Structure formats: structure tokens, C-alpha cells
Amino acid sequence: MISSPDSRDTTRLGWRLGPVALIALVSAMAVLVGCTGKQTDASASQTAATVNKADITVQQINFVMQQQRGLKPEQADAAAKQILERLIDQEVALQKAQELQLDRDPRVVQQLEAARRDIVARAYIEKSGEAAAKPSPEDIKKYYDAHPALFSARRIYNLQELAIEAKPEQTAVLREQLATATSVNEFIDYLKANNIRFSGNQAVRTAEQLPMNMIDTIAKLNDGQAVLFPSAIGAQVVVLAGSRSEPVDEARAKPVIEQFLLNDAKRKVAEADMKALRAAAKVEYVGKFATGTASAPTSPEVGASAAFDSSPSANGLK
Does an H or E element contain 192, and which? Predict the structure, then answer.
């Protein structure tokens, strides 16, 4: 029998910025500051390459590299060369687009304005977060002691994952079937027999690579156990095929926890500031948006949460 410990309903969340999106962001930033490739400030014009007489500078490369989390020093040179090649491709496309006057296309203008609004608004949110206090040594130790699954009892997990398409009312039945199944294959046979669509995946994940709201539950599993979490599409089954212990001591965890707590504090300060700004602003809903929206404003946490990525994996825990 596959045993399944009690757990609260949780869902998997998270996103990463891909290379294409990153280059698009750099392009938007270039437009915002009036940059078309050629730099006029001699102090900022260390040229890395020229494309039809337009400079691509070391400053541009460094800007993109600063967005790369977890980049090791020994990887810097190789990463810089890859970024330069992408910037060259971007510059070639940009020049051709300007030649075709695509920068005047209404759709492009709209996207550029949306990017400008997002970048400037995010800059304010980040600025407001600067008022957050730095965590104390006591705060850091308290967090370390409260999260053994991430640190003192940290494990590397070999997981089998099933993403199941199901209706909310099917969750209880699926959980019962998982608990009574003698093997993962028996549970999969049940899914197939009942025409329940699913996809499988096998992965090795460190504790900090797991969603924060799943870590404690998965940490309680013994090898061979499984647990079911409701998800956006139905349910996610996680089977612990195997694991090994790899703890992180307090000294090694300290800078990671400090950055995590600081980011979290910044997020909370920014959320409070946004809430105050929203309360002071005069907002009038018009047309079809006027019905039933005044009492349910958009959550102010969205912008602050996006500006401050507060998770141990995002802050350098390896």
C-alpha cells in the first residue's frame, strides 16, 4: 500500500524569466532611456561590438548579466559572450525594424508604453521597499530553527510526479484511491481505466526547489510514500522514490536567510505603501466595470510580490 500522510491543500506556483523575455525587457529599457545603440557618454561607451556602426557596450552586457541569478564567477566570461551574441541579434533586428518603421506600429507603441508603465511602477515599489529594516541575528536563527526541512534536515529528493486533469469533486476519490493502491502503477491503472487524463514526470529536486507550501509535507514522507495536492488543473501526485540527506549548517544558511527575510520585509513594506496609496487615490469605475467592482479592488499585493522574489531558492541556497 502507498501510504499518504495528511496534508493541507496546496498548489504549485512559480515562474522564471526566459532568455527571450529577458532580451525583450532589455529592448524595452533601451527604448525608455532613448538608446538606439550608439552611446554618447564616453564613460559608458566601452564598446564590445559594433553593428553597422552602432555600438553594443560592456555596460549593456553587464546590465543583462546582473539579471542572471546564481551565475558563478567562473561562468561570467562564457555568459558575457552569449549575451553579446544575443544583443547583436537584437540590434540587427532593431535596426531592420526601424528601417521598416515598425517602431511606429500602433501595436508596438502600445507594448512599449505598457513596458514603460510596468518598469517605472516597479521602480517605485522597489524604492518604497528600501524602508524595510534589516533582519537581526535573532530573526535569522529563528527562521533557521523553524525550517529544518530547508536546512538542518535538508534532503535531496528523487520524485515521481503525476499531473492529473480532474474536477474538484474528484479530489477526494483520487486521494482515497492513492491511499489504497499497492503501487504507483496500480494507481496509474486506475486513472487509465477511468479515462482520467494525466502526464508523468521524474525529477531530482533539492528541498529549496520545492514550492514553499509543499516542503514540510514532502519532508515528512518516507521513501516509497506518496501525497496528493490539489492543483490548478485538478491534482498533483508526488511519489518519493528515494532521497538522501544533505543538511545545510547555520553559518552557510545565514546569508541566504538574511536576504530572504530582507526581501520579505521589503515586500510587506511595499504592500502597506501600495495599500495606503490606493486608499488615498480617487478611483472611479466606468461602463461595464462600474458594477460590483468598487467593493473588490485589485489586490495591491500583486505588484509588490512580483518586485520582491522571496524564496530561499531565489536568494542563493544551493
Answer: helix 184-193
